[in-house]
């Protein structure tokens, strides 16, 4: 069973700073099937990145994804006030079919 | 514009049943693979299950905690996705989201969610 671990649990940063979020898998994940989501309080998740590095429709280019194998990264180049939220990584294809990481909360320092 | 609107949530006693619906619009529903994802209060996201399009076999897959108790179905004529939940447990309490599966195993559109509370 694939387990996704995200670090750090909480990231405290100021607007304009760079955020680097990590997602590590217990077994190799196909890069084609690694996604990132943003969720704000009281809202549904929103797809940011699919296929490890492709931005979803309408996602600003300050969001970027990278990585392969067991180590993946979501980078927000300059945090805007609207970017403070919880971020989840997700894998597809290995047992169980879909797994989410526990999330990283990005809050205002 | 893609829209997914869930309904049917509410309060149910342990051991009870509930059926959730997800009305879809803005895309060709019959071609889409669809999933349910849930989120317990204050917790992370948990995939519940998926149904393929009928042209791809219409088969379903479920997460271990719900297998044998939950059933996903679809009515393409009504562009609606369903989640039949039986033998509900307290730990099934969550907001339930329907989501459209993207081409890379992701979930590219989500509904606003419906809250299911299992309590005596």
Describe this structure in words.
The complex is a heterodimer of chains A (109) and B (120). With 109 residues, chain A is mainly β. Chain A has strands spanning 4-7, 10-13, 19-29, 34-39, 46-50, 54-55, 63-76, 86-92, 98-100, 104-108. Chain A has no helices and 10 strands. In chain A, strands 2, 4, 5, 6, 8, 9 and 10 form a 7-stranded mixed beta sheet that branches. Chain A has a 3-stranded antiparallel beta sheet with strand order 1-3-7, with no helix packed on it. Chain A is globular and about 35 Å long. The mean pLDDT of chain A is 95. With 120 residues, chain B is an all-beta fold. Chain B has strands spanning 3-7, 10-12, 18-25, 34-39, 45-51, 60-62, 70-75, 80-85, 94-101, 107-110, 114-118. The radius of gyration of chain B is 13 Å and the shape is globular. At the A-B interface, β4, β5, β8 and β9 of A face β5 and β10 of B.
> Termini of chain A, distance in Å?
36 Å
Biggest β-sheet description of chain B? 7 strands, mixed
What is the 3D form of chain B?
Answer: globular
Number of strands of chain B: 11
The helix content of chain A, as a percent range, equals: under 10%
Per DSSP E runs of 2 or more residues, the count of β-strands of chain A stands at 10
> Given the helix and strand composition of chain B, which structural class is it?
mainly beta
Major pleated sheet of chain A: 7 strands, mixed
Which stretches of chain B are low in confidence, meaning pLDDT under 50 for 5 or more residues running?
Answer: none
Name the shape of chain A in a single word: globular
- Along the chain, the helix and strand elements of chain B come as EEEEEEEEEEE
Write a brief caption for the model.
The complex is a heterodimer of chains A (109) and B (120). Chain A contains no helices and 10 strands.
């Amino acid at each position: 069973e694939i387990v996704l671990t995200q670090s750090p649990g909480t990231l405290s940063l100021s607007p304009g700073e760079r955020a680097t979020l990590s997602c590590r898998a217990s077994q190799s994940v196909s890069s084609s099937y690694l996604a990132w989501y943003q969720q704000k309080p009281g809202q549904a998740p929103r797809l940011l990145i699919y296929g490890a590095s492709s931005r979803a429709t309408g996602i600003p280019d300050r969001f970027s994804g990278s990585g392969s194998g067991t180590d993946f990264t979501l980078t927000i180049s300059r945090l805007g006030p609207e970017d403070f939220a919880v971020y989840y990584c997700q894998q597809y294809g290995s047992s169980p079919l879909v797994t989410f990481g526990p999330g990283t909360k990005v809050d205002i320092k | 514009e893609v829209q997914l609107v869930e309904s049917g949530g509410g309060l149910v006693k342990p051991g009870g049943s509930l059926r959730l619906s997800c009305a879809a619009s803005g895309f060709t529903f019959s071609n889409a693979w669809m999933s349910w994802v849930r989120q317990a209060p204050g917790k992370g996201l948990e995939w519940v299950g998926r149904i393929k399009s009928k042209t791809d076999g219409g088969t379903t897959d479920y997460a271990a905690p719900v297998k044998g108790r939950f059933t996903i179905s679809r009515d393409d004529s009504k562009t609606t996705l369903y989640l039949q939940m039986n033998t509900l447990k307290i730990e099934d309490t969550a907001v339930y989201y329907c989501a459209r599966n993207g081409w890379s195993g992701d979930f590219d559109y989500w509904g606003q969610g419906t809250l299911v509370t299992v309590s005596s």
